[in-house]
Amino acid sequence: MAMQGIMGLLRNAMPAASAKHTVLGVFSDAESAATAGDELKSAGIPDTDYDFLTDSPYPEGSLGERDEPHRLYLYPFIGALLGLSSGIMITAMTQVAYPLVTGGKPVLSLPPMAIVCYEGTMLGAILFTVIGIVFESRLPKFDLGLYDNRITQGFLGLRVKAEPEQSREVVQIMNAAGAVDVKTDQ
Amino acid sequence: MASEAQAHPGQGHDHDAHGVDSSGHDSHEHGHFGPEMWVIPERSGLVSGVVERQQAGSGLLRWVFIVGGLLTILGIVGFVLKLVTVGFSDHRDWGFYVAAFAFVFTLSASAPLAACAFRFTKSHWRRPLTRIAEVFSLVSIVNILLFIPALIALPEIGVMTESGEEMVRRSIWFQELSNPSGWLMASMIGLVFCSLSILWLSAMPDMAQSRSLVTGFRASLYARLAGGWYGTKRQWQIQKGGLAILGGLYFMLVVFVQFLIVSDFAMAMIPGWKDSILPPFYTVISFQGGLAAILLTAYALRRWGGYRDYMGQAPFWAASKVLLGLTLLHTYHLFAFFITYWYGRLEVEQAILNYLMFKSYIGIFWAQLFFTFFIPFPILVSNHARREGWGAPLAAVFILIGLLLFHIRIFAAAFAAAPADLHGLYYLPSDAFAFPALLLPPPGATFPDLWDIFMILGGVGIVLFLLRVGLMILPPLCLWEMKEGSMYQRVDTLIRGRYLVLAKPE
Q1: Contact across the interface for A154 and B256, Cβ inside 8 Å
Q2: Which of 447-486 (B) contact A at CB < 8 A?
Q3: Which of A157-171, B79-93, B401-415 has the lowest mean pLDDT?
Q4: Which site among A133, A136, A149 would you substitute to test the B interface, given the most B Cβ atoms closer than 10 Å to its Cβ?
Q5: For residue A107, what pLDDT band results from cuts at 50, 70 and 90?
Q6: Domain boundaries, given as residue ranges, for chain B
């Protein structure tokens, strides 16, 4: 999983090696963008080849976009387990190595160990969550690619990776759906 | 005015710039609420408007910067002179410093939690407040620096008697003979790292959207930190999930670190003080202080900072009820602490009550009670004060003063209670019933010297200074959340009144 994340990171950091063209349609409203997405699907373009770019999160499925499964929730669990294990090891090994009897309590007392273990669990979970966010969101991406600043003003972008022979059709679909502007990387 | 106006490209406008809707109703008929209750900024001009507003600055914010900076310098001077004059040999000299540190920690660690908590509960009124809450994460960086002298001043856990016997002070840590600096510092660094991660994740879309509009240092910073954000569904999903997970972890960690701070730097420093109510009490009072700081900052930005077109009265109206709840909880915990000890009536319990409440620190105790409860409570109870938007910030001023007094009463008093020798702090093994005599009669109150006063003022100053710096660097409003809010909210007519219509997609 982590290897997949690293590969994804590298893949996104590098300029695209494929021969696909990128087309960006800019739409002034969500309905037109969603219509363009539907038309692209009808034209046989896989939904993994296009992305909606928005300036704020839209409700799930409102643009007819694909589901985006991710494994972010696994990262904190892994981090927590590692942190907890480290906490148990540090406290147990320290107390066994330097056995001091305090107030008649057993050398390996769980309540004081719990404090260090909890701290280790939290720190591990937080660290791994941040790592997970970086991997799973495919950041950092050094090459921004096609973008339009109007997207920051409430417009929507529809970015398509299309085979060279399909680019013209994609542009036509976007224009027909009501794009206010269509850009290509060619 | 932007209130009651929402522009969304392609969806048309319901109202013109003067607040008259297409059906001819004059929006001066606002029903039960005034026209400034709900302000829903126009989405299209939000980024450029906020960036322009931020670059323009305001007189008040400049003064906050200058005063905060001067107080910070004063605090540094006080710290250096204190260090030169007394050193770290006796922890009792550093009680006021620890109080100042704990005050800064309390505010800066609790405030970001408000952003996480209200995001969890999907409270739409939170949107103008979230970035302000998150910017306190930048203030929390200084906690790491301030924590170092506090850790040095903390007495060792173990002492060696003349006969060679090792005796261990009452503490929550397992058998360490030095003070638990490593674990305490690790928890503080983890907390700061978590809150900064939340700030980064939340601000990333805003930095990406603003990067073409800013220049100089901010342009470079935004380009680096926005990391190529362009707003795909995957990025939004990971951001949402990341904020939820980090928010949950932050809550779990902040409560834990507050427990460590109040246990190690207050409870363990007063012989015989065993209190299960103090950690949750400290957590509640820090939540109260954190929310108060957010509301006061938001009010200053709205009233004097030029953000009236982006922030209505609704966030204050709604948050004031939460603040009222926290104020009542604070007082309940205070009473619970008192009644448990008063009812128990052991010699040590009476000694602690006399020391912290009814003899040594009676003046500061009652002052704190007035500032954290008797004054803010009637303000927050008033419907009028809450609805007009000024009630919660006014109550917040008193709460923050009370919070500072609380820290002085608890931490400075705790550090002044006993010397760190076998007859001072409570070391084991010992006769468990012999030590309470130490506080009988309770020692007198310790008063700050000039350097202590400088350090306390420096604590206040550094919060002001770093908060202002944070609000200069980052957009003071969470732009993507505001835009999301404008998609889900509008003000519409129901019979004769104007009311908020809210879409709830989740």
Answers
A1: no
A2: 480-481, 483-484
A3: A157-171
A4: A133
A5: confident
A6: 46-502
